């Protein structure tokens, strides 16, 4: 009996007589009502089985009845026969299996002793019916690897056919033991391109579109000049691809589809193409980091008031929006401010406490991080912030980005193709994608999700995005994004002249020229200057409030003026240095917070508590010989019992 691989829906097969005999008379009547428009009189179960056997083995009748099934039931039927996973929920899947069982195509509930001790709930086919369904629906029974990969296709090819096809393409007599060598020659980008160019024009265009847009997949709808079998022969004779049905559980397509072998798709995508670099738009720089850091600093001063529902009051939102950089990113400012607050909470840098959003103890440490470290933290939380439709596809998109070099322009359609190629490779090794591709099992929905993710990554500065007709057209991995994703371990070296990208004017305006480490200088300057605008240069203005806020976050007047001197092309005006020193010297820091106070009758008792390893994590600091500040109220029963065992009884 065939064994079932984990995650597959492979049905068992038995003889037709055994299949029919396992059913009750009532079940047989229901099946007969579907297959016979004029049910014949019956007198016994054996008569019912005899009539049904004759009907079920009628090939023409089978094709006629299959055409009446819904597309979902037909897709499920293909999945059950091929043993490929389905993307429907368990309840829906079982409901559709029931529908197929009612007409006698499959047995939905094989009880243990009824049919060869089959596993209960596991679908069972009659062998003769299964064979006829495969022929009627032209189901491709080749293993996934043989369909999607050239390597698998070559391994499965008979020797005489292999020698004929490969010999003609490589112009040499191949041998079985050299198939790996032949595979390397056949996947050479130029050789693959030449074979594609030898295809008829319409088919060549379809292959090109499949490679450039959707990972080597293309619907056959609209290609009227070719029948599926002719297309399949054209592609396989040149070892470019094949034609097959894409079942549920993978990236669904209606009807047969062209599948360009993954190795060929990868080879064609590796051929350089001329692509205009995305223009540096206002949303390609460090605006997001500046906004997030500014909002975090603001929360330390005033906090943001929130309602019981968790939404932010309009008055607080207005203050936040007034602090944010002018942007052409297309985001609605109110939603963007709320999104930044959500992100800060997800990062553990802010928390909702007593009707306000306030910074946590980790906020100051985060503000001192380098921009690429901050962005790396943000990218790690974008799946929560953007609520992507699918974590699996999101992580595949990050892999595509990590394959880029900083400054390498990539059309978004080719980025989509590389994304799909990674998914297709998982298909080729039999990976169960039914659960991983929830919500995005159609190619259109996957590309819509990927498009929104690329745009968001552009807004955060990971990639530079060229927008055309309000949709991403091309992208380029930024230096900041490369550092955040780990593509670059450290910033590229630059000369002293390259580091000097700043001009400080006497009216406190700072202009940062956009080359070299400009994004790093602009991000550092934004700690004590307000962002004004972005065009061919970054424009910021040093203000008293921003200098005071920087001091609260740990900066000193010396560190600010030193930063300006390190990156300025011209001497720093004296009034700028004087003002920064004056404003910073007048800042006196005080802190208010809510806390739980622990008080003991004598210092010795508090000593015992402070030295206890299990209690230490709950203590913030000691205020006096008999007073300590707790991070939160101790209510854990095990911890209270532990204290009692040491003679300490905690009240209140």
* Annotation field: number of helices: 31
Supply Rg: 34 Å
Class based on secondary structure composition and strand pairing: alpha+beta
DSSP helix fraction: 40-55%
Identify the strand order in the major beta sheet: 12-13-15-14
What does the average pLDDT come to? 79
What summary fits the major beta sheet? 4 strands, antiparallel
Can you tell me the overall shape?
extended
Give start-end ranges of low-pLDDT stretches: 1-9, 87-91, 110-120, 280-284, 329-333
Classify the beta-strand content into a percent band. Answer: 5-15%
In short:
With 652 residues, the protein is α+β, with helices and mostly antiparallel strands. The protein has 31 helices and 18 strands.
Task: Provide structural commentary.
The protein is α+β, with helices and mostly antiparallel strands. Helix content is 49%, strand content 12%. A hairpin with a 2-residue loop joins strand 17 and strand 18.
Task: Please supply descriptive tags for the structure shown above.
652 residues; alpha+beta; 4-stranded antiparallel beta sheet; 31 helices
Summarize the helices and strands and which ones pair or pack:
Elements lengths: L11 E3 L1 H6 L3 H11 L9 H12 L2 H8 L4 H12 L7 H13 L21 E3 H11 L6 H5 L1 H7 L2 H12 L8 H8 L2 H9 L3 H13 L3 E3 L8 H10 L3 E5 L10 E5 L1 H8 L17 H15 L2 E2 L8 H10 L9 H14 L3 E4 L2 E4 L3 H5 L3 H15 L5 H12 L6 E3 H17 L14 H17 L3 E6 L2 E7 L1 H7 L10 H4 L2 E3 L4 E5 L4 H8 L3 E6 L2 E6 L1 H9 L4 H11 L6 H12 L10 E4 L3 H9 L7 E6 L2 E4 L6 H9 L7
Parallel strand pairs: 1-2
Antiparallel strand pairs: 3-5, 4-5, 6-8, 7-8, 9-11, 10-11, 12-13, 13-15, 14-15, 16-18, 17-18
Helix pairs in contact: 2-3, 4-7, 5-6, 12-15, 13-22, 15-22, 17-18, 18-20, 20-24, 21-22, 27-29, 28-29
């Amino acid at each position: 009996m065939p064994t079932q691989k984990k995650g597959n829906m492979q049905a068992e097969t038995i003889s037709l007589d055994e299949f029919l005999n396992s059913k009750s008379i009532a079940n047989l009547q229901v099946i007969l009502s579907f297959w016979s428009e004029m049910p014949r009189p019956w007198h016994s179960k054996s008569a019912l089985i005899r009539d049904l056997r004759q009907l079920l083995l009628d090939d023409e009748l089978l094709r006629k009845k299959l055409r009446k099934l819904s597309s979902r039931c037909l897709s499920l039927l293909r999945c059950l026969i091929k043993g490929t996973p389905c993307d429907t929920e368990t309840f829906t899947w079982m409901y559709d299996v029931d529908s197929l069982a009612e007409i006698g195509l499959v047995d939905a509930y094989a009880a243990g002793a009824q049919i060869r001790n089959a596993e209960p709930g596991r679908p069972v086919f009659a062998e003769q019916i299964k064979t006829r369904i495969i022929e009627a629906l032209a189901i491709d029974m080749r293993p996934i690897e043989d369909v999607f990969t050239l390597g698998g296709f070559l391994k499965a090819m008979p020797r005489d056919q292999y020698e004929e096809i490969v010999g003609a393409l490589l112009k040499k007599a191949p041998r079985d033991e050299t198939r790996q060598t032949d595979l390397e020659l056949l996947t050479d980008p130029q050789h693959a391109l030449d074979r594609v160019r030898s295809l008829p024009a319409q088919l060549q265009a379809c292959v090109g579109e499949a490679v450039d847009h959707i990972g080597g997949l293309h619907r056959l709808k609209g290609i009227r000049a070719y029948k599926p079998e002719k297309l399949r022969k054209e592609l396989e004779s040149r070892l470019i691809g094949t034609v097959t049905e894409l079942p549920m559980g993978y990236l669904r397509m209606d009807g047969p589809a062209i599948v360009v072998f993954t190795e060929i798709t990868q080879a064609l995508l590796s051929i350089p193409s001329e692509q205009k670099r995305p223009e540096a738009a206002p949303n390609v720089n460090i605006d997001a980091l500046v906004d997030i850091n500014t909002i975090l600093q603001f929360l330390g001063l005033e906090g943001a008031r929130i309602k019981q529902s968790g939404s932010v009051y309009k008055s607080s939102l207005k203050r936040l929006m007034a602090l944010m950089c002018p942007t052409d990113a297309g985001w609605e400012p109110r939603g963007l401010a709320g999104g930044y607050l959500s992100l800060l909470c997800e990062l553990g840098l802010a928390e909702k406490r007593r009707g306000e959003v306030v910074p946590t103890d980790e906020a100051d440490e985060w503000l001192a991080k380098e921009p690429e470290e901050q962005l790396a933290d943000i990218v790690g939380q974008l799946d929560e912030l953007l609520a992507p439709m699918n974590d699996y596809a999101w992580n595949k998109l990050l892999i595509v980005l990590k394959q880029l070099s900083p400054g390498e322009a990539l059309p978004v359609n080719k980025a989509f193709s590389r994304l799909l190629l990674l998914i297709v490779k998982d298909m080729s090794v039999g990976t169960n994608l039914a659960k991983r591709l929830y919500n995005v099992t159609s190619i259109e929905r996957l590309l819509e999700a990927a498009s929104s993710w690329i745009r968001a990554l552009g807004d955060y500065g990971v990639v530079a995005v060229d927008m055309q007709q309000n949709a991403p057209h091309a992208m380029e991995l930024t230096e900041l994004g490369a550092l955040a994703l780990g593509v670059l371990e450290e910033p590229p070296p630059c000369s002293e002249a390259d580091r000097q990208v700043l001009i400080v004017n006497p009216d406190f305006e700072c202009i940062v020229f956009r080359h070299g480490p400009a994004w790093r200088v602009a991000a550092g300057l934004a700690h004590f200057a307000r962002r004004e605008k972005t065009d061919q240069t970054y424009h910021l203005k040093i203000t008293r409030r921003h200098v005071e806020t920087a001091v609260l976050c740990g900066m000193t007047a010396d560190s600010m003026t030193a930063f300006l001197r390190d990156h300025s092309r011209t001497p720093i005006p004296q009034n700028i240095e004087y003002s920064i020193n004056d404003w910073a010297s007048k800042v006196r820091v005080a802190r208010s917070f809510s806390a739980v106070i622990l008080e003991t009758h004598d210092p010795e008792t508090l000593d015992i508590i402070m030295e206890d390893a299990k209690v230490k994590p709950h203590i913030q600091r000691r205020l006096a010989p008999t007073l300590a500040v707790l991070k939160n109220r101790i209510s854990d029963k095990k911890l209270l019992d532990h204290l009692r065992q040491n003679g300490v009884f905690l009240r209140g």
